[in-house]
Amino acid sequence: MKKTPITLAAIGLAAYASFALSEPEGDPEKGASAAAVCTACHQADGSGRHVEGGESWPRLAGLNAEYIAKQLHDFKKGNRQNASMMPFANMLSDQQIIDVAAYYAQMEPTAGQGGGNASEDMLKRGQQIAERGDWSQYIVSCKSCHGPDNQGAGAVFPGIAGQHAGYIKAQLNAWKEGTRSNDPQNLMGTIAERMSDEDIHAVAVWLANQSPVAE
Amino acid sequence: MIRKLMYAAVSATVMFTASAAASDYASDAEIRKYIDTLTELGFPAPEEDQLVHIPPTMEDLETADIHPKLKQTIRRGYDLFTNTQQLRGENVFNNMNCSSCHLGEGRMPFSAPIWPAAVTLPNYRGKNDHVNSLEERIAGCFAYSMNGTPPEYGSDDMLALAAYHQWLASGVEMYPKQGIYGRGFPAPERPEELSYANGAKLYQQECSVCHAEDGSGLRVDDQTVYPALWGDMSNNWGAGMVRVLTAAGFIKNNMPLGQPRSLTDQQAWDIAYYMDNQERPQDPRFTGDVKETAERFDNFHRHSMYGKNSADNGELLGDHENTGGKPFLKPFNVGVPRNFEANPE
Q1: Cross-chain Cβ contact B37/A137 below 8 Å
Q2: What does pTM read for this prediction?
């Protein structure tokens, strides 16, 4: 066999590298060690925590890997702003980001917290918004983007069923106030702007009580 | 039930009906608020003497003073309308739900709200050149938009769908004389030139995040999240949405989801034109010759790209025998005439 000229080998490597970048394969085992810095908030089982009256930490276990990776990149680039997250996202290399994302994605999802004390009326309103929307305010249902039972649709629309109420509420408020805007085409932002504080609370507590995966 | 009210903002007299689902009807203030919400979103205000109706919601149904069995039937109709995929393989052979095109569960103006069918039918319909009943109209959607075959006339499912339509029309007079506000998918004015290249670019920018770069949409766990816009799992060449003006009207008034009226007229038309230059399952009215079929149904296909050369690759669109996921071409309801003149006295 002829020796491959060095230039050709270099081109081959470059082609391989660009292929590898477009189709990133995360390694959950490497992700586990890189995720050591995440566990203080997101917990060893990826469950995060609802913190009543404080900053809630989202459950990451079982979320879509590409979605997690995009959020980490956005924190690094400043497209998504959060004082608690930024220093940790900055510590991760691009490879570590996809590894960490793969690590959390393959974890067993845990139950949502923060929906326990909601009144029946509040939950009913939350269910309406999540499953049917309120078209009188042009609030489309959550599930029309977040998928069947709001358990996620592809890499762009994360599962929100079984997410902590405090986290969902904080994110919807951030979109409403314009402090979060890393969604494609402002799809979430336009809806959040039309939601009242009560509706945001209602949908957050209802979603927290739902199963994150099909039972 | 029907009241006249001076709507100051448009200084026109608008005929109002009101939701009859609850025991009392919507107040003038509620109707004014309804119109204000729509105009703030960029929708046009009602024209003079247009009929404005707020259809009842599923929440209203709970408190409605009607027989529990009727409520059950309406709920079944709603369920079929919003999850038509439960009829997959039986009546539906693509990824569509009724609510894929009729947004807001069939209640939204400018998104072909379905209640007008309940108060304007039976009536003459140009598409099949005879007088259609409500069931026959619903059957048309199954034959074309769902690329399928309708539930039998008089069946439980057909009754449930008809009941849902009719209930949404609660309180509206039959055969109203006024025009109906927000009926159909009103098309914006057609621009002088339509651009395939611009449509292609805009599609990738504005639509592909949900409907995918190849128009196939998105399914999760065998349920449709985003419908296919062309290809085997989309509506066939006989569906109303293949008329570029209808698609432009849908897009302008409803897309991207949650952002109605955000695209310019030119953008809406270019995207619609791009979509209509792609392939989809055969029109069930196919005679075996696409040019002949296009000519025979010229009142319909003059608005579509069917039987014309694709602006993309020059190929003749619709020149194939592909029926998509449906293992046959023609459902039972297509091409069935009515002729009362032939009836004996």
Answers
A1: yes
A2: 0.91
